[in-house]
Amino acid sequence: MTELTIAMPKGRIFEEAYQMLIDAGFNLPEEVEMSRKLMIEIPEEKIRFILAKPMDVPVYVEHGVADIGIAGKDTLLELKRNVHELLDLKISQCYIASAGLPNTKMNEIAPRIATKYPNVAMDYYKEIGEQVEIIELNGSIELAPMIGLADRIVDIVSTGRTLKENGLVEYERITDVSSRLIANPVSYRMKSARIQDIVTRLKKIVN
Amino acid sequence: MTTIKKFEKPIGMRDTFPVTFEKTEAIRNSGRTFLRGRGFEFVNTPSLEYYDTVGKASAIYDASLFKLVDSQGNTLVLRPDMTTPITRLATSKLLKEKIPLRLAYFANVFRAQQLEGGRPAEFEQMGIEVIGDKTVYADAEVIITAIQLVQDYGIQSFKVTIGHAGILNCILNDYTENETQANKLRSLLIERNYVGFEEAVHSFDLPKTKSDALLQFINEAANIESIEQIEKYVSKNESLLYMRQLAEIINLANLSKYVSFDFTLSSHMNYYTGMLFEIFAEGSGFPLGNGGRYDGLLHHFGSDVGATGFGIRVDRLLEIIPNQKTEEKTVAIIFEDEEFIKALDLSITLRTEGNHVTLQSRNGLVNEEAFIKVFDEVLYVTQEDK
């Protein structure tokens, strides 16, 4: 059996995906001591987990330092990395939407959009034939309309509570998001048996 | 804009240091010997071409082209690939002299980077083109040459994945309702987005037989051992027969174990009209090379004789092939100025013995100790010798 390196996002997605692997019959320890570790070796299954920031998972996989990985559809759409998207794990489901102050229209001249996802936002507004200016922010996106920085925001929505608490309403639902199993193009060929095995076993758990 | 520092180079441009240079040169030499031994003739084409001819035909994304303007106002491009210029060269001149042509190249190609580093914007490619032979034997020759070339470089662990643009089109058109749907699925396959493919199939509202067939196809066709497995999706046609023959020839050449078939393989290079393939090797995260039949590109240049070929990334070969110690011994002769003649004579003798000899005046050295460290052997020619 060949070694397999899996890049995983830290936190909740890791726990859910890890449980899915256990359910799929992989011999993994029930309790895994996470704390500050960035690498976890599972010699019994010849698997090594790399723990990364969610946005970095597609980068690791594209460069082949991880064979496969688990990444949110939002990061895949934003980063447009050259990776194979193999399976929808249907965990951490949410969606990307545009939002703004209630009953407002976008400014006619150069409407401004604040977002963590400049590429996703730009692609979306281009698609609907709207020329906008993107303002990239790293957090607290909801602030932007209130303080007059932007007409709309484009952000992840899971329950909609954050929007409500900040007095914003959702305008357009842009795309659904969930965690995906992705693979490096070379690993996909060179380790095809192992990767296919994981896909088949996880697919049974998903459905 | 930040000011450009003195040491900076344009994004994606790389210097070649001595060790890499020698390794590249060794790759060139053995590659040239190998390909010339198989009847391929080496050619080169200019770095600059017209945007309207080669630039547009190359099928490289427009944003990746380096463009400039000549004194007449024509847009030029730094060649983004070699297949297109060689097609221009062949159709305009060489095909009149010999057909089929077997051409080979080692050349730098240029593709601008929009993302961050990690990818070069100028890199060397090597490859072959067989122009003017439409038979399956030409395609087989290309694949077999690719496999044996990779083997010749001492690479053990690699895989060639073969698909067929015609068969894929056939399947996509048969199981969808219109052109738009087929194109949508094709572009998802180019991105290798299998999840998106399944979602799109569900969203099309196709008759159950069609959607089931597509879903089964996407699960099965990416990794199949023999052509028979794909036959249930397509009615018997020439392309299928062609692929069977191709598989058979590769089998006769005893190279089947390096080959697998993937009928979902699709390329944004829309001039690939028939079989196409990708080469993967352990040691690099990126594909080593790719190739295929590009009769469409020949047609674009006004010829219908057909062509097939492959290209391999030399920069990725460099990553994969282990460093080899050079056989030649490096010798430094450090001389005092008065003894120059003696040192010169000694250097000539040592060079005829096949050593790499550096002749260095002792007065010219700032740090002698650091200098002599990099040589296998150090000889001194000083007055005390007398």
From TrEMBL, chain A:
Its EC number is 2.4.2.17. It is an enzyme of class 2 (transferase). GO terms for molecular function: ATP binding; ATP phosphoribosyltransferase activity. Pfam families: HisG. GO terms for biological process: L-histidine biosynthetic process. The keyword Lipoprotein does not apply. SUPFAM superfamilies: Periplasmic binding protein-like II. It catalyses: 1-(5-phospho-beta-D-ribosyl)-ATP + diphosphate = 5-phospho-alpha-D-ribose 1-diphosphate + ATP. Residues 53-203 form the ATP phosphoribosyltransferase catalytic domain. The keyword Ubl conjugation does not apply. InterPro entries: ATP_PRibTrfase_cat, ATP_PRibTrfase_CS, ATP_PRibTrfase_HisG, ATP_PRibTrfase_HisG_short. One of its GO terms (cellular component) is cytoplasm. It is found in: Cytoplasm. Keywords: Amino-acid biosynthesis, ATP-binding, Cytoplasm, Glycosyltransferase, Histidine biosynthesis, Nucleotide-binding, Transferase. Pathway: Amino-acid biosynthesis; L-histidine biosynthesis; L-histidine from 5-phospho-alpha-D-ribose 1-diphosphate: step 1/9. Heteromultimer composed of HisG and HisZ subunits. Catalyzes the condensation of ATP and 5-phosphoribose 1-diphosphate to form N'-(5'-phosphoribosyl)-ATP (PR-ATP). Has a crucial role in the pathway because the rate of histidine biosynthesis seems to be controlled primarily by regulation of HisG enzymatic activity. Lacks the C-terminal regulatory region which is replaced by HisZ. HAMAP family: HisG_Short. Belongs to the ATP phosphoribosyltransferase family. Short subfamily. This is ATP phosphoribosyltransferase.
TrEMBL record, chain B:
Transmembrane segments: none annotated. Pathway: Amino-acid biosynthesis; L-histidine biosynthesis; L-histidine from 5-phospho-alpha-D-ribose 1-diphosphate: step 1/9. HAMAP family: HisZ (MF_00125). The keyword Glycosyltransferase applies. L-histidine binds at D81, M82, T83, R111, Q125, E129, Y271, Y272. Belongs to the class-II aminoacyl-tRNA synthetase family. HisZ subfamily. Required for the first step of histidine biosynthesis. May allow the feedback regulation of ATP phosphoribosyltransferase activity by histidine. It comes from Ureibacillus acetophenoni. InterPro entries: aa-tRNA-synth_II (IPR006195), aa-tRNA-synth_II/BPL/LPL (IPR045864), HisRS-like_core (IPR041715), HisRS/HisZ (IPR004516), HisZ (IPR004517), HisZ-C (IPR053846). This is ATP phosphoribosyltransferase regulatory subunit. The keyword ATP-binding does not apply.
